[in-house]
Amino acid sequence: MANELSNLHPVPGAQRPRTRVGRGQGSGLGKTAGRGTKGQQSRTGAPIARGFEGGQVPLKRRMPKRGFTNIFAKDYVLINVGDLAVFPAGSIIDAALLKSSGVIARIGKDGLKVLGMGEIANAITVKAAKFSSSAREKIIAAGGTTDVA
Fold first, then answer.
1. Which residues of 17-54 are buried (b: 16+ CB within 10 A; e: fewer)?
2. Residue 83: which of 44, 139, 27 has the closest Cα?
3. Per-residue model confidence (pLDDT) at position 1
4. How is the chain split into domains, by residue range?
5. pLDDT at residue 110 in the model
6. In the structure, what pLDDT confidence band is assigned to residue 90 with cuts at 50, 70 and 90?
7. Rounded to an integer, what distance in angstroms lies between the CA atom of residue 55 and that of residue 25?
8. In this structure, are residues 128 and 114 in contact, taking their beta carbons and an 8 Å threshold?
9. Does the pLDDT at position 99 exceed 70?
10. DSSP states of 98-127 as a string?
11. Which pLDDT belongs to residue 45?
12. CATH 3.30.450.20: does it fit domain 77-148?
């Protein structure tokens, strides 16, 4: 008999019939249906929350707290001068243009910060919230301008 799609079947023992619980003592899973006798896990519709320890203070609450979140931290999206070299000379570059062109994925809550890694040869105008000193020098040296917006 050839191996054809019409002749394929599971190997013997690979498929077992569905277990029908609570269908009499002769099935081996009658009466309590394999749930044991009494208790929270024997009841229907009573899920136990993850991490629940029977009323004892859970491990997550017993552990000491570590660190903190600085609510005054600034949220800048960082970009390097080398990433701006793809734009032609005379371009006015701001966060919205960078996001629409796919250079940055999001605009930070506090705006854009330009850092000085990489080289630039085009005279462009860059509008950002902050510039590093090396980034400002490189943009001006290429004939461009920096506007703090």
1. eeeeeeeeeeeebeeeeeeeeeeeeeeeeeeeeeeeee
2. 139
3. 59
4. 21-64, 77-148
5. 95
6. very high
7. 35
8. yes
9. yes
10. HHHTTSSS--BTTBEEEE--S---S--EEE
11. 87
12. no
